[in-house]
Amino acid sequence: MKKISTLALVAGIGVLAAGCGASSTKSASPSTFTTIDEFHPITVGAPLNPFNTSGNNWVGFDQMQLGWTTNSPTNPNAFYPGLAQKWKISNGGRTVTIWLQPGAKWSNGKPVTAEDVKASMA
Question: 48 lies in a domain?
Answer without folding.
Answer: no
